[in-house]
Specification:
The strands form two sheets. The chain has a six-stranded parallel β-sheet, sandwiched between helices. The protein has a three-stranded antiparallel β-sheet with strand order 7-8-9, covered by helices on one side. Helix 3 links the parallel strand 3 and strand 4. The radius of gyration is 20 Å and the shape is globular. It has twelve helices and nine strands. The chain folds into two domains: 175 residues, 3-Layer(aba) Sandwich (Rossmann fold), CATH 3.40.50.620; 93 residues, Pantoate--beta-alanine Ligase, Chain: A,domain 2 (2-Layer Sandwich). It is an alpha/beta fold and 289 residues long. It binds pantoate. Pantoate binds next to strand 2 and helix 8. The site of pantoate has 10 residues, from strand 2 and helix 8.
Length: 289
């Protein structure tokens, strides 16, 4: 596996691959890799001839008081995992590579307000602006044919798909289903903030969301009732609920009567750790409804 740290490094390697007619896939990450990330690398290998994984903890997507400083940085073990996973190029840019004019003076993008203003965007103002700003920069540096993102961050996935379409990037976005711990807890670097017993307890989030999906899929029309019941079940289990929402999967708007492809999304706190998760709920047509 090759290592690139500067713009010149990544440009020279990817330019050569393009000249050779090789397709490249980019897996953007913030490191502290786990099986969820490795599933993204595996998907990237399937989609392209060469896989680039980037590791960069992006300051512009963290809000005031969030965990930018304490975010786990584990480059050495990450490198070993990527090597074993068959990644071809690890891109580890420093801040001056990503933001050469500094964070304050660098150009920032605004994520599409209709997609980014709700749910996570409402709880974490400016978060998706930081995400599109850094992902656009990574796209410009790596020039991939394919970019791979996890469904774990479902709203991020939609925001990035929209950016690609809106700005006309010639990049195919591929999404990969969430990888879960045995307890059902969605894999996330932030799970490292939890003690082992808490990781098991936090798996109840998934169990409660699966019950909500079952209720939606069996035809419940009272989606606000499902949201309220789900939130109160979670509170009863010791979670502090930020939001539970049943939304239209395509754009996370509140669903209309004809919408069938829904997504249940939740953000909760287990002790001080913020967890997010989402699952699909498809309402098949019910005669007479
Ligand atoms: O999902 C993440 O890890 C980050 O939001 C991303 C896409 C790497 C941008 O910093």
């Amino acid at each position: 596996m090759r290592l690139a740290e500067t713009r010149e490094d990544i440009h020279s390697i990817t330019r050569r691959w393009r000249r050779e007619g090789l397709l490249t896939a980019l897996v953007p990450t913030m490191g502290n890799l786990h099986e969820g990330h490795l599933a993204l690398v595996a998907a990237a290998r399937h989609e392209a001839d060469r896989v680039i994984t980037s590791i960069y903890v992006n300051p512009t997507q963290f809000g005031q008081g969030e965990d930018f400083d304490s975010y786990p940085r584990t480059l050495d073990p990450d490198r070993v995992l990527l090597e074993q996973a068959g990644c071809d190029l690890l891109f580890v840019p420093g801040q001056s590579t990503m933001y050469p004019f500094g964070i304050e003076n660098g150009i920032r993008l605004l994520a599409s307000p209709d997609l980014s203003g709700r749910l996570e965007g409402r709880s974490r103002p400016g978060h998706f602006d930081g995400v599109v700003t850094v992902v656009a920069r990574l796209f410009n540096l790596a020039c991939p044919d394919v970019a791979v993102f996890g469904e774990k961050d479902f709203q991020q996935l939609l925001v990035i798909r929209r950016m690609v379409e809106d700005l006309g990037y010639p990049i195919r976005v591929v999404s990969v289903p969430t990888v879960r711990e045995p307890s059902g807890l969605a894999m996330s670097s932030r799970n490292n903030y939890l003690e082992p017993a808490d990781r098991t307890a936090a798996g109840d989030l998934n169990a409660v969301m699966l019950a909500a999906a079952k209720s939606v899929e069996s035809g419940s029309k009272d989606l606000m009732g499902v949201e309220k019941d789900t939130a109160s079940r979670l509170e009863g289990l010791g979670f502090r609920v930020d939001y539970v929402a049943v939304r239209r999967a395509a754009d996370l708007a509140p669903p209309g009567p004809a919408d069938r492809h829904l997504r249940i999304l939740a953000a909760v706190y287990w002790r001080d750790t913020r967890l997010i998760d989402n699952i699909s709920a498809i309402q098949v047509g019910i005669p007479g409804i």
